[in-house]
Each structure stands twice: as structure tokens, then as C-alpha cells.
Design a protein that fits this description.
By secondary structure, the protein is mainly alpha-helical. It is 50% helix and 10% strand. It has a two-stranded antiparallel ribbon with strand order 1-2. The longest helix has 17 residues. The chain is globular, with a radius of gyration of 13 Å. The two termini are 23 Å apart.
């Protein structure tokens, strides 16, 4: 495991840069990933995706598949990629503090 520092906080991450533990998620983590993803400002739509990902993960222990995420948010997959340029798995799940998805997210 590696560590990243941002705004005075240290985060333990896996080899792909995902948080080591969902319980270590906080707003500073979101700001760090936002910067890494090149997202200038988080909109209500970004937060909707993040909140839905976290709720699903808390209930099921995994991230939802892409089509499920699209259905739950009401957003087309293309729009989710506009919100999170590196995609729902890498960008959105990482920002939400979820572990790296093992399958299709």
C-alpha cells in the first residue's frame, strides 16, 4: 500500500490509487480525486452519482454494474462519462471512496 498526502491529510491507497478502506473516506479525499481527475467543480449531478454509489456499496458490499448505476441515477452512461471522464469505475468509484471494482461497473 502507498500513501498520498493532500491538504495536510494522508490517505493509504492501493496500487491503483483507490482508498484502502471505505471508512477513511472524507471530503478531503473527494477534493484530492477531483484534482487528479481534472474536474473543476463538482455539481449536484456528481454528488448524486457519489451518493448512490456509496449507498449501494453500504447495502451490497460492491459497486453497482454500469447499467444499474445508470438506472439508479437516471443518467445515460454517456453523461456519467461526461461527469467522470475516466469512467464510473475508475473516477466515480474512486471519488466515492469505494474499493476498485472487480467487474464491470
Amino acid at each position: 500500500m502507498a500513501e498520498v498526502e493532500f491538504n495536510g491529510q494522508t490517505f493509504v491507497v492501493d496500487e491503483d490509487g483507490f482508498l484502502d478502506d471505505f471508512n477513511n473516506y472524507n471530503k478531503e479525499w473527494v477534493e484530492y480525486v477531483k484534482k487528479e481527475e481534472g474536474i473543476e467543480e463538482l455539481t449536484d449531478e456528481h454528488w448524486k452519482v457519489i451518493d448512490i454509489l456509496q449507498d449501494y456499496y453500504k447495502k451490497n458490499g460492491i459497486a453497482p454494474m454500469v447499467r444499474v448505476l445508470s438506472k439508479l441515477t437516471g443518467f445515460k452512461l454517456k453523461y456519467i462519462y461526461e461527469l467522470f471522464p475516466s469512467g464510473p469505475g475508475k473516477g466515480a468509484c474512486k471519488m466515492a471512496g469505494l474499493p476498485k471494482p472487480t467487474g464491470c461497473v
